[in-house]
Each structure stands twice: as C-alpha cells, then as structure tokens.
Design brief:
globular; 34% helix; 6-stranded parallel β-sheet; 21 helices
C-alpha cells in the first residue's frame, strides 16, 4: 500500500458562500436515512457544487503541485512491495536499515548479485515496509546497522517501532524464509544489537531462518565478512530454488542524461527543507565563528565552529548530534573527473534514472550538477570495494591488467591476500587504482553507481539553546595521518571543518539523542569527557548556567576532563574554571596525562573522588561519558564498577547488577565513538 502526501477533506467542514446558509458536510459516522440524504442533496445542490470546485482548486494548489514539481522528490511514505514484476524467477525482498548509507550500499550490491544468481531481487528501505506486508513474502534478506547505544538506525526506526511489540498471534510470518546480515563495530558495547534483535524477532513470529546470520565488523574487515556470507548465502539459495546462475555482466543500471538547458545557478545538491531539517532535507547554515583552539605551533588541530540557525526550523538540546555534510577536497574532485573524462562536464546538470524502472531515480536530486555529486555524494576517499574492482576488470582493455584485477576482486584466499596487500594495507583509493590500471575506461554512470555514498559526519553539539538560541556550536579534532606508503591523508569532514571561514555555508541537520541532562535539576551529575569528548558537556554547563540564572536549584556536578598538556590542549579551560567559580559545577577534576613522569588519566581522578561519586549515585545521580569508545570509555566503565564495588561493599555480581540498573534506568549514558 502506498501512503501519499496530499490534501484531505474530512467531515466537519463548514461551508458558507454568498447568500447561502452554512451547510454542514456530515461525517461518515453520522447515521442518515436515504430520504434525509435526498432532501439534503436537493436543498444544498449549489453549496455542494461550490464545495466540489473548492476541492479541485485546493488539489491543484496544494496536492498536485507537491507531486508535479521537478525540484522535489516523491512524498511516498511507503513503497509497495507489489512493485515486483513477476518474471517467473523466485522473488527476493532485500530490506536495509541504515544510518550512514553503508547498509544501503551493500543491499544494492546484493540485489545485483542475487539477480545474477537467478532471483527477482529488489532492495528497499525498511521504513518503507509495514510488518504485515511480510506475510505475502516468501524470501527476505535483511542488512542492518546498529546506532548509538543499541538503537535502530534512522532507516529502520519506524519498522522497529511497528514490529518490536508484535506477538505471533498478531503477525504470523510462518510462510517467510529469511536471513540477516549485521554491520557494526565491536568497539561498542551493543555490537550487532539490531541484527540480533531482528533475527530473534523474525524467529519469534514464526519465520524460518534459511541461512545463519552474518556479522561484519568495521573494526576488522567488514567487506570480507560480507563477501563470505553473501557468496555462501547465494550458493545455498540457488541450490534450494534451483535457479540458473548467469555469467556476470557488468553494465550501468542507470541512464545518465545531460540537461544542457538547465542553468547550473538553478541547481543544488540537496532539496530545500519542507519542515524540520533532516538527513534528506538539510539546511544551509552560515558560519558565524571559526577559530583554532590549540596554540600556534601545535602538531595537532582542534577547531571551534559556530553556525547561524536564526532563520531556520532547527531545534536542539544540549547532547544532541550535529550532522555535517562534508565536501570532498576540490583537487581530488578534479582528479577523478579528469581520469573519467568528465572534467568539462562538472558544471553540467543531469538526470540519473534506472534503466529498468524509469520512475526509480538515485539519491541525487533531479537538478544537480556533476560537480555537486562528486563533491557531496560520492565517497572518493574510501577504499574501493571488490565490486568496483570487478567492474574495473570488466572494462580493462589490457589483458594483464584485467587478469590482475580479476584476481584481486575474487573471493578466494589468493584474491583476499592480493586485495589486502595492494588495497587495504596501503589504503589505496579508487583514483590510485584507476591511475595504475590505465587501460580501464569505466563508464561515468557506472562509477557513480558503484562508489559508496559519502555519509554525513556526526558531532556532539557543544552548546545549549537556552544560552545560544540562534546558534549551534561544534568542536572538531582534525584527523591527519600518513599511509604506510608515506602519503599525507586527512579526515574528509574534519579537514573541511578546519578550512571553514566566517560567511561560508554548510549543509547540516540535527539528530536528536537521549544524551540529555535529567529533567530534575536537583539530581547530581557526573560528567566525564576528555579532549573533544567535552563537547556535549560544554552544552550541559551552558544549560545549567541558564537554569541557575532562572533561579533553579542545581544538584552537585562533577566534571572530569583530560588532555595531554595543560598549556597546549586544555580546550575551554577558562570556561570550566568559571563554571566552578560560579557554582555551575561542584568539582572540576582535570588530568594532564603528559605533564609528569607518570601518565594520569580521568579514571585516576575518579578514583581520588570515589566516595563523593558513589554518594552522588546513591542520591539518584546520573553518569555521562563522552569520547573514545575503544580505550577511554572501557577504562572509565571499569573504574566506575570498582568504585561501586568498593564503596558499596559489594561482590562482583551485585556491583554488576547495580551498574545494569543505572543503565536500564537511563542514569548511565554514553556518547562514544571509534576512530
């Protein structure tokens, strides 16, 4: 079923025009006899005619324009699974739940490979499907990521909310065969939470697992895990359904048409927001301040950036996430365009539509330029995937180059070894491979199809709207490194943010989180955030400052901050000190790890305050941790566990239950990330 946007006239409308008496257009729930209805129609014919005219006018002004405007995409909230065209092949529904686009990219690759294996496959966003529609399906494959602290990604949230409370008597999936692949990072506590949840849920609802759940760890080798799972899955399904495996033929699935008559000045990389900005409709906000936080001569870089949101519908709380759409480095954009023979087309608008379904476009807006796509949409710095390398082999004119590329992309031990040694270990990009294998002439539209999507980067908001109603702040540690081959590289978004100047415009939106201060201002809070992990805590301090100025009573607050050196990277040090002096925080505990012979970290400062911290927890206090997930968050967690165990005079089991209760009650919150 499709749910579309539009204008809905419902019962209760009162109509008055000219000298006619007001007429009540009765609701369906009212009981009306046939005689009364005939009398009603006869006496109010002109009013009903005018009402009909009004309906037509309203449709053309509001409903029709929303669908016919070339600058907007479809408002369909649900995509009908019946869009499958029955061609005699077994149907395979592929659902993906994504936060940054990776699950979507993998699902589209699986769709292509499944079709080669003889299946009528189609991939869809999980949120575009209702759980009850799965009762009509026989084979479904799900690819899922996990967001934050075990939460569903944005691309699966609606589906999750609809299915997670359903029982077998409400939804019977006994006719459905399924398999699940999870994408995650083992540095996080709730690794693979969503893939494991859905695997269990589908079983509970009676579905039959046709192939064991696969799990890919981005911290190890996500693509290799996926390739192994996919190959084994498709081989088993092909045998089970007796399908014919066709020879792989790599051709563009999209038509690229140049729009010569479209003025580049009238194009944009994103659709304008229609309401609250989100991932599909970000706002363009101006930079109103940009400054370096570390002293001149420092080997590292941390920048503070502020954006103007005065005339926007952006709303946020301290602790929410700011999503930034970065721009690829412009020199890199031109290198790719030149290698693909498209340098003279960068400022030309185009359309990009599926060859098989003309109504199905790509994620690119209908009117944008090739420059926009290369700048905002294509991840030009990521490692090339094996599907991309297979395409290079297909379009390599030189026999030796083709042979080597085919070997590199093969899912064999030799292929994996070659890929790891030539691509993964030296961190080669697609441009490096294209420049090495010069006989490859890949079609531009295929390149655009196969390169992963450049996802937005999320930063913990470093301000509170109660103090800054018209601005939103971010603090960014700039990523720079050398590859094993000695090439200088940098983070796409952090280097972009570093280069921003006042007046520049950036596409962004806010993603709400659960990392918020307690509503009861009297509750104690314990905040731990080394380095740029201080960002959301800075927002908390601003929020508490505003609360204090309004005369609200504040509970005790402990702030733990850590950095290398007091004189080099104690960012916002004056603000922290002022907050303590003004009574916004009770205690400021700073660890400078390299200012003495022995390393001192935030967990050491916590041990020094263990009695106070435990008493704060006993009073109903909240704990907030922000920063590195791989080391800091785990070490702080272990320290907190020991504090609870020692000060609460508990054995391990009881201390563990105490910690679990904190977390289950929303009093132990983490905003952590892995590099």
């Amino acid at each position: 079923m499709l749910r579309r946007g539009g204008f809905d006239l419902r019962g209760g409308l009162i109509w008055a025009a000219g000298g006619f008496s007001p007429v009540l257009f009765l609701k369906k729930s009212h009981h009306i006899s046939p005689l009364h209805m005939l009398s009603f129609l006869a006496n109010n014919l002109w009013s009903l005619l005018l009402l009909g005219i009004l309906t037509v006018v309203v449709y053309y002004l509001f409903g029709k324009s929303s669908h016919d405007d070339d600058d907007t995409d479809s408002d369909d909230e649900f995509e009908d699974i019946k869009s499958f065209v029955d061609d005699g092949r077994p149907k395979m529904l592929i659902l993906y739940g994504t936060q940054t686009g990776t699950s979507e990219d993998y699902s589209k690759m699986l769709e292509s490979d499944a079709q080669q294996y003889g299946f009528n496959a189609i991939s869809m966003d999980m949120n575009q499907v209702r759980p009850e529609e799965l009762q009509r399906e026989q084979l479904m494959i799900c690819l899922l990521s996990t967001y934050g602290e075990g939460d569903p990604p944005d691309g699966a949230r609606d589906f999750y909310e609809a299915i997670h409370t359903l029982s077998p008597d409400k939804l019977d999936l006994s006719n459905l065969k399924y398999s699940v692949f999870g994408l995650g990072n083992s540095q996080y506590k709730h690794y693979q939470a969503m893939s494991r949840f859905f695997d269990k849920k589908f079983k509970t609802l009676g579905a039959h697992e046709v192939f064991p759940r696969g799990e890919g760890d981005v911290d190890i080798n996500l693509e290799e895990a996926y390739e192994d799972w996919k190959t084994n899955l498709l081989n088993k399904l092909s045998t089970m359904y007796n399908t014919q495996i066709s020879e792989e033929k790599i051709e563009p699935k999209y038509d690229l048409q140049w729009l010569e008559d479209v003025d580049p000045e009238n194009t944009a990389p994103f659709y304008p927001p229609r309401g609250i900005p989100d991932s599909k409709y970000p706002i363009k906000a101006k930079v109103i301040e940009s400054k370096q936080l570390l002293p001149a001569g420092s080997e590292r870089s941390t920048v503070h950036v502020e954006f103007d949101i005065k005339s926007t519908k952006v709303n946020y709380e301290a602790g929410d996430h700011l999503a930034i759409y970065a721009r690829n480095d412009q020199s890199l954009v031109y290198k790719y365009a030149a290698r693909l023979g498209a340098k003279d087309r960068l400022q030309t608008a185009f359309s990009f539509q599926s060859k098989n379904d003309k109504s199905k476009g790509h994620q690119f807006p209908r009117k944008c330029t090739l420059f926009d796509v290369f700048t905002y949409f294509l991840d030009l710095t990521s490692l090339p995937r094996k599907k991309f390398i297979r395409a290079m082999a297909w379009y390599a004119a030189d026999r030796e180059e083709r042979r080597e590329l085919e070997k590199m992309s093969a899912n064999t031990d030799d292929g994996k070894a070659l890929f790891n040694s030539f691509v993964r270990s030296p961190k080669h990009r697609a441009i490096d491979l294209l420049n090495k294998y010069k006989s490859v002439e890949m079609p531009l539209e295929l390149f655009m199809e196969l390169v992963p999507t450049l996802p937005p980067r999320y930063y913990s908001i470093a301000s509170a709207k109660s103090l800054h109603p018209h601005a939103i702040h971010a603090v960014v540690a700039v990523v720079r490194y050398k590859t094993p081959l000695g090439k200088d590289r940098g983070g796409v978004c952090s280097t972009y943010m570093e280069g921003l100047n006042v007046g520049d415009e950036v596409y962004l939106y806010v993603r709400p989180s659960t990392f918020h201060l307690p509503r009861n201002t009297k509750k104690p809070v314990i905040m731990i955030g080394p380095g740029t992990g201080y960002a959301p805590l800075r927002g908390f301090l601003q929020q508490r400052t505003a609360q204090k100025e309004k005369g609200k009573e504040l509970g005790e607050a402990y702030l733990f901050f850590g950095c290398r050196n007091k004189n080099e990277d104690w960012i916002y040090g004056e603000e922290m000190t002022e907050a303590q002096q003004n009574g916004v925080i009770t205690s400021l505990c700073v660890a400078f790890s390299r200012d003495q012979s022995e390393k001192v970290y935030v967990q050491h400062r916590m041990e020094e305050m263990k009695e106070e911290l435990f008493q704060a927890l006993e009073k109903g206090g909240y704990v907030y941790i922000c920063g590195d997930a791989k080391y800091m968050a785990k070490q702080v967690h272990d320290t907190l566990f020991q504090i609870v165990k020692e000060c609460g005079h508990m054995v391990d089991h009881d201390a563990l239950k105490y910690m679990e209760k904190l977390e289950n009650n929303g009093r132990y919150l983490k905003d952590v990330w892995s590099a």
